[in-house]
Amino acid sequence: MSRVKKGVNALKHRRNVLRRVKGYRHGRKSKERLANEAIVHAGTHAFAHRRDKKNDFRRLFQTRIGASAKALRTSYSKLMGDLKKKNILLDRKILSTLAADHPEVFAKIVAASK
């Protein structure tokens, strides 16, 4: 059986790893071992933060709705409770968009919920 040298594959792997860490600081951009470790950690954080992003946006939506509701002399919790009782099925993302971009429509929704 002939001998197989792994030089081509090793260079290909090293090149791909170093391409993925372009823009990183210090040895993590140029040393293969540190670059591999950086890729693993970056992937872990990216996975977790994709989940966190959903919570961050929900918090933003609640803040926007609460601020607009306060301007209309009600509170966030009372507004959401009233909407649920009246069976007005608008989610927080839509309510937030209406509160920020179309305050007159939001005011009508608040009036309809009372």
What does this protein look like?
The chain has 5 helices and no strands. Helix 1 (7-20) runs parallel beside helix 2, helix 2 crosses helix 4 and helix 4 packs across helix 5. The protein starts with 6 loop residues before the first helix and ends with a helix. It has one domain. The chain is rod-shaped. The protein has helices spanning 7-20, 32-71, 76-85, 92-101, 103-113. The relative contact order is 0.08. The model has no long low-confidence stretch (mean pLDDT 95). By secondary structure, the chain is mostly helical.
Number of domains: 1
What gap, in angstroms, lies between the N and C termini? 84 Å
Helix-strand pattern = HHHHH
Number of helical regions: 5
List the helices and strands and how they pair.
Layout: H1 7-20, H2 32-71, H3 76-85, H4 92-101, H5 103-113
Helix pairs in contact: 1-2, 2-4, 4-5
List keywords for this structure.
ribosomal protein; about 110 residues; 5 helices; ribonucleoprotein; rod-shaped; mainly alpha; structural constituent of ribosome; Ribosomal_protein_bL20_C; single chain
Short description:
75% of the residues lie in helices and 0% in strands. The chain has 114 residues and is mostly helical.
